[in-house]
Known about the structure:
This protein is α+β, with helices and mostly antiparallel strands. The chain has helices at about 1-10, 10-65, 75-90, 130-135, 180-230, 245-255; strands at about 100-105, 115-120, 140-150, 155-165, 170-180.
Amino acid sequence: MKSFRKALSQSLATKVILSTVLLSLGVIALAGSALNSRLSDGIRSAAFNSSIAESRFTFFDAEYKLVISRNSTVEERKKILADIIVNSTTQIVKEARREVAFIRVPSTRKAPVSYEMSSELIRVTSIPEQLRDKVKKDSEIHYKYAPITKKSGAVEEALVVGKRVNIPSGGNYEMYIIFSLANQEKTLDLISRSLFLTGFVLLLLVGLITWLVVRQVVRPVREAAVIATEFTAGDFRKRLKVESQDEISTLGLAFNEM
């Protein structure tokens, strides 16, 4: 550590390169963090708006099919519910799978028929109780980001959107649509890694450019310092090599005329 401090105090090139790289690191980190935050917010906002819009349509479609099933038999109504789940959970190419669940709202009067069912991959017990309490109270659409447990035991982050619906001869039920955030998390992770790699490459380029510039400036200054030391010792034989017409050449000419 002492040798590094000594080299830093005695080397103008080291000071310039180190300070430039550190300042560049701070600027790149701030810019990368701001860009990553803006991109992440944009992706999450777009995914959220799309999920809510899709949920509204799915809830409306389900309620419409349930209303017109008023004169259907229990088995026919169960088939309608199963079709709603199948159609809603169908996975589109490059799109994360969606899950759907129907949970009966607890009441003092026991319904003669239970229509509780869900898609095969989720455990309905992992749906947040705070969200369930809100859905039970009114007929508005509510949502919450939460970890959802699959029947395989795997846990993944998801957006859970819920609404209370009425099933003829079954009473009130909570209907939930679970949107997996796995693809979204992968995209955000890819963006973060890409920004990190880009920042690292930029930092290397800044360091390289600084080294080249400093090398052009510091080397003549270092040579002038050596000659000045020899001049103070009484040796006036050495001269600086002048190859340009810039400020460094002016310094060299001044030394050579001494």
